[in-house]
Design a protein that fits this description.
Layout (H helix, E strand, L loop, with lengths): L4 E7 L5 H11 L3 E7 L6 H7 L4 E5 L5 H15 L5 E4 L8 H13 L4 E6 L7 H18 L11 E4 L3 H5 L7 H12 L4 E6 L16 H6 L1 H28 L2 H24 L6 H30 L3 H24 L6
Parallel strand pairs: 1-2, 1-4, 2-3, 5-7
Antiparallel strand pairs: 4-6, 5-6
Helix pairs in contact: 9-10, 9-12, 10-11, 11-12
């Protein structure tokens, strides 16, 4: 099959600017696959007109941006050769055809990498977009040890060789794009950024992003870990307080509380957070080593804060637990409960 540049455009309840976007992509020489993500009869006229320049695939109901991208990728995977290049483009006019073409060229040069069109988020950017992207950037860096400046860009290019990897990434709505970055970082698939023009139309009013629910979906993994860690913290802190009240012994109270809370934390994380299917004996032994290392560091830190610096025992315990949270998460996620293939 001939190598092609293919623009994949997911769309839900589009405005007429979608037709301008498609014309620009067509003029640049790209083939276009457009996904109508259940927009309904009211928008049929726009998609009918779009069918003259794009292959239009439709969902009966709204399934989400991730599902729309997967529908398009499945079609491209079956219809085109593995040497083709795909670029995902939003249909609201915020991505230029010139930038999409630039990303396609880079994807040909780096066929085993994901290419991101990175926006300059300093000037003329809506506050909610700037704040959201900044938070996501730091959360992503903390959880993957990988730096991506614009984690929320929808302009992404990749070789068709990566389609099998992209199709198995979980998520059907806005969280899918974040999940791709998480999964690719875990699998050591390169992620390359190149700067593109930053365009926001009417303060991004056309976006269907739900600030509450889509943010929850995006941050779900770290939120789950935070909830389990908070449960472990409650068990640890309450038992520590009780033992300290009964015995007055700082070392005994901390060690006893950590042993019980570690057992609770291991069970919850294995079954509900990371959903690990790995061997029980191996993960238990790894977790035990982690727990001992954390206990040692935790106890030394506690002793330093209380006996050297003079901080109150209860406040010192709280500060120590916060300090060890991210270390604990990273080791469990990437070493103890890592998924097969990572």
């Amino acid at each position: 099959m001939t190598c092609k540049n293919i623009a994949l455009v997911p769309s839900f309840e589009p405005q007429s600017v979608l037709l301008e976007v498609l014309d620009q992509l067509k003029t640049s020489g790209m083939e276009i696959v457009l996904i109508d993500d259940g927009s309904g009869p009211r928008y049929s006229g726009i998609f009918d007109r779009a069918s003259s320049t794009a292959k239009v695939l439709s969902h009966a109901g709204n399934k989400g941006k991730g599902a729309a991208l997967k529908t398009g990728m499945s079609y491209i995977n079956a219809a085109y050769g593995t040497e083709s290049v795909i670029v995902t483009v939003d249909g609201d006019g915020q991505h230029r055809a010139e930038d999409a073409l630039l990303l396609c060229q880079m994807a040909r040069q780096h066929p085993n990498a994901l290419i991101l069109g990175s926006r300059n988020l300093q000037d003329n950017v809506p506050a909610k977009s700037k704040i959201g992207n900044t938070i996501t950037r730091y959360v992503y860096r903390a959880t993957t040890h990988t730096t991506v400046y614009d984690t929320q860009t929808g302009l992404r290019a990749f070789s068709a060789r990566l389609l099998p990897d992209l199709l198995i990434v979980p998520g059907n709505r806005y969280e899918y794009e974040m999940n791709v970055l998480l999964e690719f970082a875990r699998r050591k698939i390169p992620i390359i950024e190149t700067e593109i023009e930053t365009i926001y139309i009417d303060n991004n009013a056309a976006s269907h992003f739900d600030a509450l629910w889509d943010s929850i979906r995006i941050y779900k993994e770290i939120l789950k870990f935070s909830a389990s860690s908070f449960l472990g913290f409650l068990v640890d802190y309450l038992l520590y307080s009780l033992l300290l009240l009964l015995t007055g012994n700082l070392l005994f109270s901390n060690v006893g509380a950590r042993i019980v809370s570690a057992a609770v934390n291991y069970t919850v994380n294995r079954k509900f957070v990371f959903q690990s299917q790995g061997r029980l004996v191996k993960s238990v032994s790894q977790y035990a080593l982690l727990a001992m290392a954390v206990l040692l560091g935790n106890t030394l830190c506690l002793e330093l804060l209380v006996n050297t610096i003079g901080i109150h025992q209860m406040l010192a315990k709280l500060l120590t637990e916060i300090l060890f949270f991210l270390i604990n998460w990273s080791v469990q996620r990437f070493l103890i409960f890592k998924k097969k293939g990572e």
